[in-house]
Write a structure and sequence with these properties.
The complex is a heterodimer. By secondary structure, chain A is an alpha+beta fold. Chain A is built from one helix and nine strands, in the order αβββββββββ. Chain A has a single domain, classed as Macroglobulin (MG2) domain (Immunoglobulin-like), CATH 2.60.40. In chain A, strands 1-2-3-7-6 form a five-stranded antiparallel sheet, with no helix packed on it. By secondary structure, chain B is mainly α. Chain B folds into two domains: 166 residues, Cytochrome Bc1 Complex, Chain D, domain 2, CATH 1.10.760; 165 residues, Cytochrome Bc1 Complex, Chain D, domain 2 (Orthogonal Bundle). Chain B contains 16 helices and two strands. In chain B, α3 packs across α9 and α6 packs across α9. The longest helix of chain B has 31 residues. Chain B starts with a helix and ends in a 16-residue tail after the last helix. The chains are: A alpha+beta, B mainly alpha. At the A-B interface, β5 of A face α14 of B.
Chain lengths: 135, 430
């Protein structure tokens, strides 16, 4: 009984931790594309992400099975859907090998809910990942 | 008969009277009830505006003398030196008057002629990636060069400025200490009295008559003049206001002390500022600005066409030879992230840079051409949220403040008043 409740508590703590990382949006977390073709994880140069500072993210792109995708073409756009406006900057994405990509030139200029849309194309396959952030 | 008089009396006098009394009570309860306690989330937002959260003075890595105090001293003298102007009467301080928080109290700046826009303060601008209302310059130093040659402002030319600064005994000595060898401009066949690109025809012709190498020497000297002025301007940051003391007291958990610092109206204004009035969407961070470009439907200046703002500014900054990627910047082109990733597009039509809200008192009139004369009228503008004359008013959904709420917002904004946080000597001519 005691062991069971300990395990449950540990799981709860772990879950809370994961949620904290997930909700902050600045730690490493995995985002699945809309049609579940790709998964993307990212690591921000700024941790935590703060407003009004230009910075970059390291992206890792994998297939749904977890295989690195190195030859994708990725475009990025984003904004605050609640305010009907886009990003303050025009970020760019460059491949750096082994499924890694550098997303440069991000700057969030308002507090609130942001969406970042990554359109990933590998050969004839395309899918979109929407990363959400609450700043 | 008697009865009908009293019924009429009741209907026409007492009923409206009672209604008014109830209305007034309601009004007083709403307007004068004490502010509610902050939630932890609200406290975190309030703290994010505190000057204590302002990062250290930024170092402009495109300017090698950005942090050099000797450069700031020289820039201080140049900032107040009217000899840099064509008529020897106009200095940077003519429009950026320290006693008016580096503004001039005019709708549009007036120097040799009338300028296109309102004079912004320079306090806190070293934190901004963009200079001017439309962001047509990307550093303090490249901005400082522009008025020197603007025919409506100081009306001079880079050849004259480069020679004046390097041949003046005092400036020459300071320049040499900062930048090494002094350029030699004595040969008038190579370096005419006055020359500069895109200026009046004889100066432009003289410039075109110079070799590229000589133009480069003049440009470099001229850019160095901008860099020392920038080293001075960088020091100007707003000081700690009553609001900052309030935020500090909240951080320390001393709510009792906090309540003595701001009045109920100011606290409620702060609540609206971070809440329903949605001011924080653009006016955020310790300087109350995101230094971004927004169209907020400001009406045109009488007789002027609607101002295109950032949509033109972004093109201009990209073509400025003194920008971060140009030969006179200390950075490699790929290091200029703001410039590389500057946004373009239709969203920027009529968009102007968000100004700081610190020190609004004494810096009227407001907006890019001083179109709005008072703070109360500014708040009315945002409350009415009119359609933009060109482009799209991003703030058009922001409305619905009641008159007492607008007064509370104004009271809060005035709690951001504080002197510039430098020794008094920097605010006077040396």
């Amino acid at each position: 009984m005691l062991r069971k409740s300990l395990v449950l508590t540990a799981m709860l703590i772990l879950q809370t931790f994961c949620w904290a990382v997930f909700a902050q949006g600045s730690g490493k977390s995995v985002w699945l594309s809309e049609n579940e073709l790709f998964q993307v994880s990212f690591e921000s140069q700024l941790n935590p992400i703060v407003i009004n500072q230009i910075h970059s993210w390291k992206l890792q792109v994998m297939t749904a099975e977890g295989k690195a995708v190195s030859d994708a073409v990725i475009s990025v756009k984003g904004g605050m859907p609640e305010h009907n406006h886009g990003l303050a900057t025009a970020p760019s994405i460059e491949a750096s090998g082994d499924g890694n990509y550098l997303l440069q030139g991000l700057r969030f200029h308002m507090m609130g809910y942001w969406e970042l849309e990554l359109s990933i194309t590998q050969g004839s396959i395309s899918d979109t990942v929407i990363v959400t952030l609450d700043l | 008969m008697k009865l009908s008089i009293s019924a009429g009396y009741f209907r026409f006098i007492l009923t409206p009277g009672l209604l008014m009394a109830v209305g007034l009570c309601f009004w007083f309860v709403l307007a004068y009830k004490p502010p509610a306690a902050w939630t932890e989330a609200e406290k975190a937002i309030i703290n994010s505006f505190s000057l204590a959260r302002l990062p250290a003075l930024p170092v402009d890595r495109s300017n090698a003398v950005s942090t050099d105090i000797r450069a700031a001293e020289m820039g201080h003298a140049l900032f107040f030196d009217a000899r840099l102007s064509v008529n020897q009467q106009i200095s940077c301080a003519t429009c950026h008057r320290p006693e008016l928080r580096f503004t001039d109290g005019l709708d549009k700046a007036r120097a040799l002629g009338e300028s296109r826009r309102n004079t912004p303060s320079i306090a806190g601008l070293s934190y901004s990636p963009w200079l001017y209302w439309d962001g047509r310059r990307d550093s303090l130093w490249s901005q400082a060069l522009s008025p020197l040659e603007d025919p409506q402002e100081q009306g001079s030319n880079r050849m004259y400025i480069a020679r004046f600064v390097t041949e003046d005994p005092e400036y020459g000595k300071q320049y040499q200490l900062l930048f090494g060898e002094l350029p030699n401009f004595t040969d008038r066949s190579r370096f005419p009295n006055d020359a500069g690109p895109e200026l009046k025809s004889e100066w432009f012709a003289a410039w075109q008559g110079m070799s590229e190498g000589d133009q480069d020497i003049v440009n470099r000297t001229f850019s160095n003049v901008g860099k020392v002025i920038a080293a001075y301007e960088r020091l100007m940051v707003p000081g700690s206001s009553r609001f900052d003391e309030y935020a500090q007291a909240l951080v320390e958990g001393d709510d009792e002390r906090a309540e003595e610092i701001l009045s109920n109206d100011e606290i409620k204004g702060l609540g609206l500022f971070i809440g329903d009035a949605r001011c924080v969407e653009c006016h955020n961070g310790p300087l109350f600005t995101n230094f971004e470009f927004h169209n907020t439907g400001i009406i045109s200046y009488p007789g002027d066409l609607p101002d295109r703002g950032r949509v033109d500014g972004v093109r201009e900054v990209r073509s400025d030879p003194f920008n971060c990627q140009g030969s006179y910047s200390e950075l490699e082109p790929q290091q200029c992230l703001e410039l590389i990733h500057a946004r373009e597009g239709l969203e920027l039509i009529g968009a102007m840079k968000t100004p700081s809200l610190r020190n609004l008192e004494g810096t009227a009139p407001y907006m890019h051409k001083g179109q709005i004369k008072t703070l109360a009228q500014t708040l009315d503008h945002y409350n009415e949220a009119p359609f933009a004359m060109i482009g799209h008013n991003e703030a058009e959904e922001i409305s619905g403040m009641l008159s007492y709420e607008l007064k509370q917002l104004e009271a809060f904004l005035l709690s951001l008043q504080a002197p510039i946080a430098v020794d008094e000597r920097w605010l006077q001519a040396p």
